[in-house]
Every structure is written in C-alpha cells, then in structure tokens.
Amino acid sequence: MAEARGVRAWIIPNGYAGLYNLEQLTELTALDADRRDAIDCTKAGSVAGHSRIKIAAIPDEKRYERIIAGLRRFSIDGLVIAGGDDTGSVVVDLAGRGIPVVHAPKTIDLDLQTYSVGGDTAVNRIARFVDDLKSTGRSHNRVMITEAFGRYAGHVALRGGVAADADCILLPEIPVDFDVVHEHLKRRLVGRLRAAGGFSATYTVVVAEGMTTADGGTVTDDSVAADAFGHRKLAGAGRYVRDQIQSRLDDDREIHQAMRELGMYVPGLHEAPEAREVVPAHLVRAGTTSAFDVGFGKQIGAGAVLLLLGGISGATPVRGDGGLFRPAAAAL
C-alpha cells in the first residue's frame, strides 16, 4: 500500500528499543520488493523483532528528543507500530508528543478491540491442543486441564474451548466455584465411564491464565518482578485448577464408590481419577499463522498507511461492519 501511494517503508528493528536507539543506527532495511519477498507471512511472530520497553520508563530525560532526532535522521514521517494494549499505550504517548503514529492491533489475547492479528491462530491452536489431549486423557481416564493465554480476557480460552467441545471453561470474567465444577465433572466423567463399561473416558477443562478465583483474585508468580508496564506475571492457573479438582476427587466418597463398582479402585494407589494440567504457553503463538490472520494483517497494515496519509495519528484501524475491513479512526 505504501509503495502504491509513493511512500517508502522501512523496518525499525527490535521494537521500542530500536526506536529509542534509532539515532545511533548506521542504516535501516527498506521494505522494498526483494525484502518483502523474503518474508513468509504464514509464519507467526515478527521478522523485525520486538522488545517490552515502555518509553516513558526509560531513565533518560531526553528520550523523546532522541527518538525525534532518529526519525529525522532517516527522514521518517510516520510510524506504524504493531502490538497489543501495552504497545498501544506507548502509541498514545508518542502521538501526544507530536510523532505521527498508527497502532496496528496485533495480540493473541483479543483484549484490545473487536479483533487483533493473531486471535484466530491462537483460538485454533488451543482447540487443537485440547482435542488432541482427549486421546491421552481417555487412555488413563484422566481429567485434562489446558491453560490458555489471554491475560485478563477470556476470549481465546472460551472460543478455543468451545471449538474443542471442552467440558468446562474457566474465565477471568466469571469467578470460579470449584464445588460446582466438581459436581459437573463427577456427573459427566462417571457417566462416561459407566457408558463405556469402565473402559475409557476423559473430562476436559480449559482455563484462562487470568482466571478469577472465588475471592476475586488471580494466580500470579510473585517470584518474578512486575514488568515495565506494571504487570505481574500470570502463571500457575492450570496447576491451581489441577490442585482444586484433585483434592475434591480424592475426598469424594461417591467417586471412590463409583471406582469400586467399575472395577478401577485400588486402595491407597488408585482411589480416584487423576487430574493433569498442560501449559502450551508460547506454542500457542508459534509456528504457522492462519489464513484469516495473514489476510487481516495485510489489511490492517494497508489501513494504517491510509490513516497516516490522511493525517490521522494516535489511532488504530479496526474491523468494519459486516465482516468487511476498513480503515477507521478509533481512539485508543
């Protein structure tokens, strides 16, 4: 789109770290025809590299002057910056300081706006993981728990879980009552075992990493300091759910009796079904990108160019009505 409109495009490497250090770089890579041919759009991630840097947090009083000087050095008149909500907060910061910039929404968390590049890919990968885990779950009559990315939004967990016919989906938006989960699990898993004559059955759970506990909290890794944007690392939701489910299974006499009736009970060794958690983590955002995300990514990039050429800054292209895509100024 930039080339068609007579605009030259360049790659600033390594995200905001590269933008801050732009002034001292000796050269930039042009996004000419040859360089574009070397980019495989079906691969997830970024060929430019990223960095979790908050410009306002850089301990340099002249950080903004330095960035502006770097842009002038390479005659850059506007920026298209891809990323999620933290990236967008810096976009607002830069735009407020007179730097023409448009935010291209790219986050698998789907916590930014109606849709962002990467969401479809993440949902499909979660659905595949959950569905594949059913085979090993059935082999051992286990409860299989899959932890999904998404931070404080449950879209990826919900959509991926629904697509995989998961039995239980735990979201940040709805505090979890594990007694309710246990009763549902017991009814479905024991029912399936009885229907299978005691042979094989499984029960699948998808839990968002930002799952809300009954007291309104989230599961975080307090051994890791907050990042530059003030976020605590969300880690351990799958393990937490596993512990909650396993303790209830182990203490439920009805479960023990069902195991006896099905010929599965072994005192002290196998008194209740076992729960296991799986954390795909970055596998969800690695590998091959879905065709939908490839197409949306190209459209959103083209929309960003049109916004800049229209003199619009501090905005993001959004998905339009009727499933069509159009560049629209949406305040961040």
TrEMBL record:
One of its GO terms (molecular function) is AMP binding. Keywords: Cytoplasm, Glycolysis, Kinase, Magnesium, Metal-binding, Transferase. One of its GO terms (biological process) is fructose 1,6-bisphosphate metabolic process. It catalyses: beta-D-fructose 6-phosphate + ATP = beta-D-fructose 1,6-bisphosphate + ADP + H(+). Its cofactor is Mg(2+). Pfam families: PFK. Residues 2-307 form the Phosphofructokinase domain. It comes from Geodia barretti. This is Pyrophosphate--fructose 6-phosphate 1-phosphotransferase. The keyword Metal-binding applies. The keyword Nucleotidyltransferase does not apply. GO terms for cellular component: 6-phosphofructokinase complex. Pathway: Carbohydrate degradation; glycolysis; D-glyceraldehyde 3-phosphate and glycerone phosphate from D-glucose: step 3/4.
